[in-house]
Write the structure tokens for this entry.
Amino acid sequence: MPQIYALGGLEQKAGPTSTVIGATILNSIIVSTAQNLIKKGMKKPPIFYSANVDGGDELNEELYNEYKDSIHYRFK
């Protein structure tokens, strides 16, 4: 995987481009899935909020409590 940043004279570079590409692909899948769920009648697809959004933690805790039996990690 190509590294794009030179580090102060070191031979090794950092910042793999695959991270950006992978995150973009994953976000595209999430958006596409949410759009499909809305088209099928779901009013509010269960998408976790960013922790940077006001009230995000509380909204995520509500989602977690609703879907905790199918989520494979713990909230908090």
Residues 17-39 form the longest helix (23 residues). The helical segments are 17-39, 56-67. The chain has two domains: 1-43, 46-76.
